[in-house]
Structure prediction request, 231 residues.
Amino acid sequence: MEGCIAQGINTWQSAGPSDLKYYRQHRKKDGKLQYISLATKDAENPCFIDRIVDAGAIAIAHHGEVTDRLFKADKIEMVQDLLDGIRKRGVMAGVSTHMPSVIDYIEREGWDLDFYMTCIYERHRSRDELKSMLDHVPIPIKEVYLEEDPPRMFEAMRQTSKPCLAFKILAAGRICDSQENVEQAFKSTLQQIKPNDALIVGMHTEYGDQVRINAEYVQRFSGLSRGSVSS
Prediction:
């Protein structure tokens, strides 16, 4: 975390519960990283939002996997319950998704939210959806990453004035076989998103100084001395 701050990265995005203790430790040491969490409405743990806010989060987004399942089941309106609860606690409320159509829908309906988290790959299509698109079904079908997906999400991101945090720009590690490919992914993403958008990129320091390298890519290809968002 200290290394991120030293490189100009100012925010940590995490899935939530398991990482709260680490963020509390960071804050106790006067750490300066901001924190964004994911959450879902959890009947077994109704105080979860309170725990995230009390730990110091500046924003909470409805978890993308759940968002997309609700959207496909025509139950997307249920997401607004969580957004209302987040807003009542005085932090920014957002929606995470892997589907450009979710952003299109929310924008069309005029939902009250502050930001989106946007996966640039729609990786959980059903067997029938893949069959319709590709005329065949790859195996396994649990996660399929298509080169044609990022332009679709970038277009959706540009259609909203709200900040979008683009994630899985490296296809969950699938295009990390060379540093040249990593560099190109950063460049392509930063050239196609809005000035008020940002990146969420997982970093594993056992494979090199990814904190420094990623921060340099952001500064070089954005044309600004700004930070990325680290998960």
